[in-house]
Amino acid sequence: MNPTSSCGPDRRSSPSSDSVSKRKLALAGNRSRRLTRTVLLGSAVVFLAIAWLARELELDTAELRGYLITSLLLVAAVVLLAVLMAGLIGLVRRFLR
Known about the structure:
By secondary structure, this protein is mostly helical. It has two domains: about 15-60; about 60-95. It contains two helices and no strands. The protein is flat and about 60 Å long. It starts with 16 loop residues before the first helix and ends with a helix.
């Protein structure tokens, strides 16, 4: 048997849990930024495609703008409802402890 070989895993070459945690946080941040960038770019492309189609098909832009505002208000209402429900659930959990 070689005197420099060991029976167990080599602890010196394994990364510490602190460096692993930092690496995971960095990867999560990169994922979050990529997702945000993808959503924003996708939204911009869809908006431009709808604008191009409206011009190409000679649709009433005021009516389309109204639809856009209505859909944005609906999305905002759903997000607000979700935030309120999350807050309510947090309060209930706090009082049940």
